[in-house]
Protein: Inositol-tetrakisphosphate 1-kinase 3 isoform X3
Organism: Vigna radiata var. radiata
Amino acid sequence: MRLNGEISSGEDEKEKQPGTTTFSGQKVVVGYALTSKKKKSFLQPSFTSLARNKGIIFVAVDLKKPLPEQGPFDIILHKLSGEEWDDIIEDYRQKHPEVTVLDPPDAIRHLHNRQSMLQDVVDLNLSDCHGKVSIPRQLVITKEKDPSSIPYEVTKAGMKLPLVAKPLVVDGTAKSHELFLAYDEFSLSELEPPLVLQEFVNHGGLLFKIYVVGETIKVVRRFSLPNISKRELSKVAGVFRFPRVSCAAASADDADLDPNIAVTLHFQMIYT
Ligand SMILES: Nc1ncnc2c1ncn2[C@@H]1O[C@H](COP(=O)(O)OP(=O)(O)OP(=O)(O)O)[C@@H](O)[C@H]1O
Ligand SMILES: O=P(O)(O)O[C@H]1[C@H](O)[C@H](O)[C@H](OP(=O)(O)O)[C@@H](OP(=O)(O)O)[C@@H]1O
């Protein structure tokens, strides 16, 4: 069974959005393969009961049993890392073309790397009289590089301080979200490659997260790192780990947006 849009249960016809299909009463079974952390943060009881009211049932995939012996599923929703799992899900996808796999490993592989994940934004080459869409200047430090060579690489690349240092690999682990702010290049030799180093972009301490599922787009505002002045940069040295400043708890949806920030944001959208 293939789904071509958001399921609605029918009773909220007045909120019918383009691209939705009226739920015909047929149950949709979603097999999920998630880490316990992700299951806890994503499959909240309020969400699963809302889904159930719309005829969408979430069933845990038993990772100790062969996937083909489970189900039947209409959708497989997964976010597990590792080649072994990729092979399992890819093999299942080939044998069950009637099941929607979210997402096919090949379709999301580039998102597990902080360099390749932004390449799509670069390739958009979006720029017009209203502004442009771009990414920060960045430098990849591969795992083969000796950390002591990072300062030289940064200087050679002409990267402007401060820099945000991020693990190159994004695999859903807490470690893949350990970010650092470097006020000088020498302290970067304390970090562990593989890394991606991005020039810090002042953005008024506010960012927009855009979620896209099919035709549905949701934009939320989140607090972010404050601007760093040249004066602060001249007075501070070292590399500092910072917390997940823009997580869901840092919602700025109700914040009074400084008009100046709105103007700045209007002219340059930067994806990090
Ligand atoms: N180049 C940059 N310039 C300024 N701030 C940045 C830059 N890159 C990241 N940040 C800040 O660090 C935060 C986290 O960055 P990023 O989204 O790349 O990491 P992440 O671990 O994927 O975050 P999450 O998964 O929690 O959204 C951003 O919300 C922003 O506040
Ligand atoms: O701001 P949100 O909550 O959307 O940030 C998400 C982020 O977009 C990713 O979905 C993270 O998932 P992983 O990359 O798999 O870690 C989420 O991390 P988690 O630790 O909460 O699952 C962020 O919350």
